[in-house]
Amino acid sequence: MYLPFILSLSSCQINKKNFPAWGSIGDIGFAMNINQLAGDHAVDCGFFDLKSKAETSNYAEGYHCAEGAYKQGLPFKLGTLTVPIDSYFYQAHLESADGKYLEVNFDIYPDMNANHHILWTRSCEKFQFNTTQKQIIGVNCEKVSEYSW
Which residues of 66-77 are buried (b: 16+ CB within 10 A; e: fewer)? Predict the structure, then answer.
């Protein structure tokens, strides 16, 4: 009897935080496609530029937001930007409005030329949350066509 009320309160807690916005990412409509996949009612756990020390320190909150939404069975989205070697690497983990667990990866070279990028999406059976390293790990994932999203 009280469970639906408690769940609705906890989902409000998740949505309350103002996380960093999903800005313009590359030249292929990455953020727009993520928004469409996640749906209008997805919990927005933010997009974090992990090159920035300030956003790196705030990323834990976004990670915990995604973990909380996942555990409650709510659609969510969480994105990051890193520079592993010589390119910008954008990654989004989300549960889509139709219940699919997706990992979307976009690797683009610093000139931001849309012709110099790699895009791949994996559909996963589930996500595991590595709390120590604040990583979301896809389990039993299969690559899907970039045009399927």
Answer: bbbbbeeebbbb
pLDDT score recorded for residue 7 = 40
Q: What is the pTM of this model?
A: 0.81
- 65 pLDDT higher than 80: yes
> Which residue in this structure is represented by tokens 């990323």?
59
Pull the structure tokens for residue 23.
């800005």
Give the alpha-carbon dihedral of 85, 82, 108, 28, to 10 degrees: 180
Q: Which of 123, 36, 121, 118 is nearest to 77 (CA)?
A: 36
Q: State the pairing for strand pair 117-124/101-108.
A: antiparallel
- φ, ψ dihedrals at 126, nearest 5°: -165, 175
Q: For a pLDDT cut of 70, what percent of the chain falls above it?
A: 79
Cβ atoms of 117 and 52 closer than 8 Å: no
141: tokens are 């994932």
